[in-house]
Amino acid sequence: MAWVNVARVDEVPPGHMIKVTVDGDDLAVYHTDEGFFATSDVCTHATASLSSGTLNGCIVSCPKHGGKFDVRTGAAVALPCVFPVETYPVEVRGDEIWLDV
Cross-referenced InterPro entries, in alphabetical order (predicted)? Predict the structure, then answer.
């Protein structure tokens, strides 16, 4: 794994998320009250973009069927999703967001 700079902190305001692409993989970066988190951007149920959904606290809702994931752990927490999404370590270095991908 290698650390990659993916965004500036000001690009992801609290309560928001963005999609970034690293080596051809779409990832979602979330800014919650608990800090920054990152997961695969692809829903494990219907391959929709999670960053196009909604973020409520640490729970992201898929825009396609409403399944939900905990962005801290990747765990599926609401049907129809049953399989977790992959998570990635996040570090904030100054005003930059770095992911270990």
Answer: Cholesterol_7-desaturase (IPR050584), Rieske_2Fe-2S (IPR017941), Rieske_2Fe-2S_sf (IPR036922)
| C-alpha–C-alpha distance, residues 37 and 43, integer Å | 16
pTM of the model: 0.96
Residue 30, domain CATH = 2.102.10.10
Range of the domain at 92: 3-100
Residues 18-33 have pLDDT tens digits of 999 999 999 999 999 9
